[in-house]
Fold these 4 entries.
Entry 1:
Amino acid sequence: MSVVIYSTKNCPFCVAAKNLLESLSIPLEEIDLTSDIEKRLEISTKYNWRTVPMIIINDNFIGGFDELNNLYSEGKLEELL
């Protein structure tokens, strides 16, 4: 299982996403894009997504916090893990 969250330091949705995953005891790798504008542009272009968090589960881009929370609410998050 692999969960990667691209985030920035002052992003409340990043904190919410990390809190949700941690409350479910799901290990995650956080990659801070706060001061790496090049990497942020690269990742944004790769996934065609402009905001953080950008969440990847098992090499599948799922979106941001809203998408993560929807998967959890619908009982579909465990299927991806």
Entry 2:
Amino acid sequence: MPMKWMKRLGRLSLAQQVMLIVALGLVLAQSLNFALQLRERRGFGIENAAMPAIARLVDAIEAGDASEAGETGDLPPRRESRGGPRRARVIATPTSPLASDAYRLPRVEAVLRARIDEASERGVAEVQAAIQQAPRRGNILIVAVRLDDGTWLSIRGRGPEPLGPVIGELALQTLLILAILLIPLLWLVRSATRPLAVLTREANDWQADREHASTAQNIAPATAPSDVRALVTAIEEMKQRIVRMLRERDVMLGAIGHDLRTPLAALRIQVELLEDEALREDMIESIERLSGDLDGILALARNARTVMRQPCDLSEIASAVATAFRDRGADVAFDRERPIPAAVDAAAVRRALANLVENAARYGGAVAIGIEAGERMVAFVVEDDGPGIPEDRIQAAIEPFARLEPSRNRETGGHGLGLAIVAAIARAHGGHLRLCNRKQGGLRAELELPLD
């Protein structure tokens, strides 16, 4: 059970967790204080109501004064003298005046016993004090003693005041304390967690292959807590290190491509002069495989950073790709739609769409290209009727050098860089590449790009 509640608590934000825990702590503390104050108020009210009755009964015991024995009804008080104070009437009865279900008051009984022992020498065998329901409404306080001769002397008085007003007062006090403490705390927590929320949005929008200005001061101003500002600064420095690392990678890949292209070309010329045809074909295939891998690596590095945005028609790009593949004998369908203008790198987008169509044609046979445009984003949709991709390998298929076809044949398995290049081009434009299996069979690939 605790683990279940911890999981539910983990779904809340930091501010919500802090406010919930503090509110629960305050409610528990105030509830305990509420109960203690109610108990104290109730005890004080009972004792305050019982003291006059105890004093009157002790005086009656000491003076031997009691009214004639009678029924133990709700007897009205009498005046001792005309114009004098109204005093409760002492009743003498042969049995206890307390009902069987009366609420006994041990503290009042102890006080009564102590007062009798202190003020009177008359023998008292038993003392009783209780609150019971009045015949009409409310409740009455009854204090009674049994003398040595078996006679019961009792006196009735008004019961303690009802606790309803006291409960309302304590509840209002609790609400005021919660408001006084929680409102400043809410402001403090929000000021501390607001930079974290902004940092989360910045991290989601940040792309290492695009230029970004430093936003540390905007995310965590000088009024933010020092540990939050330190976190934002550390993340900003980490982003800069990632950008520098990617730039160094591009420089290194460019140097490798430049240094390897010339030797591979020279090697290809020398291999063409071999007389052994089988050996010559095998070596040419190896050189072409190396050249293809090198071209794919360089294209991946180049498309990850270089985006030249220009206004173009996305429908025209899709139509050109479909026509090119149909000329090569592929079964590719595309119905020319209305013009969809967007500012993208036309060459990069054309290459990304061509990679998707090539993969679909290689593994799926018939291919259908579509365009789904929204208010801010547009998506090229490429669907095939092939076997699709196992669900546990969809994400891995986008990684560089991931080949779903287990053989090493480049004609059937490719270089394993096609989808990685598509994903890099999508990210460079601020978009995404999504893959999913169709319910009716085949794969659905969505190349999502921003319209603006």
Entry 3:
Amino acid sequence: IVVNPGQKDGGKVISVDKEADFVIVSLGQKAGVKKGGLLSIYRGKQYLGDVKVSRVLPEMSAADFVAPLKGNAVKKDDQVVIKE
């Protein structure tokens, strides 16, 4: 699996719900995101972990944290890329 955090089709974390353990990201159907797909989260070049898409809208998606990643490790504006 090759993921380039600098790729142009990346998005950002819009919000993090630490209690419900999910994240809202700025990538949606228009970017090729699909329900059940995986997204990788980065801060700069540091890989934080993955989230699994649970709901997709045209411009944004909701995704659940994949262990061991937890909500307290992710912040608004972290980078998001589609995991291929």
Entry 4:
Amino acid sequence: MKILVLANNSGGLYRFRKELMQKMIEEGHKVYASTPFDDFIEELREIGVCLIETPINRRGMNPIKDFGLLMTYYRMIKKLKPDLIVTYTIKPNLYGCTIARLLNKQYTINITGLGTAFQNDGLLKKMVVRWYKFVCKKVKVVFFENEGNKKVFTSNKIIDEEKCVCLNGAGVNLEDFPYKSYPHDEDTIHFLFIGRIMKEKGIEELFYAISKLKDENYPVVLDILGGYEDNYKEMIDEYVKKGIVNYFGYQNDVRPFIEQCHCFVLPSYHEGMANTLLESAAMGRPLITSNIHGCLEAVDNNGYLCKVKDSKDLYKNMKKFIELSHDKKVQMGLNSRKHVENVFDKKKVVNKTMEGMGL
């Protein structure tokens, strides 16, 4: 079978879907991937994926401006004649599956998070809901990464329950993210944030909480990994000068930073399933995150859930963590690893995905 994967980022495609594509190739399928060329291009080629460079503007939803992407997908699908099209993220889902439906191709959709479009009851949400209804009418299966996102689709009558498959996120490769002993040195408590630096990741709440802890003379620092999506550079530069933040920019390999941290923190407003939570938990680190679907599933006696968009509640939970004994922090880390092994093992997720696709 010839399979075409549509995605908006080559790095994410490699980091989170390489095992799935490897499994497809092992089963004798020919896999093509259409994506912008960001990073991990050679690594994708090495596992046997045929790559098609496809520029995509990840911000904003404007069908007129994105008409070129629609035409690119049309020409690509007409030329390749794939037997199955697999899409990830909103633009490939909507634009790619519109063409797939019009050309009467089999396709599956992956909802990796609802994003900004579903956050407010405005014109954008109405447009996206209608568009998803159109593409989901002929879809083979829609994969969700949490039950909350699935309920949004079924309650809005976008798709029927029988066409839904709920996965435990993208899963974690337990060999790639092995358990690492909890840091013994607690002279400075390192909280770690990994992600795009933007308001919707809870970055402002995080700045409030870490600043307040520092003002109260707790021995803390916030390590930040990730590129700027919103304009927080001046603010971060100021925090770096004050010794509140260590900023490392985007990193291809986050594991050394997870290993040296004491706790991973993600006060996000919305997620599909936060891979950074799962990767940090796999390496044996406690978690502090928002009490929302896409985050709460990662917490099971291994950290704390805080109210979304509530900087004071985040501060209280970070303070509560700091004041735990070393032994309790170590136990939280062990609980993290156990939870990921039980629920989020990548092998289980890949097998369930293959089964859902009928492969």
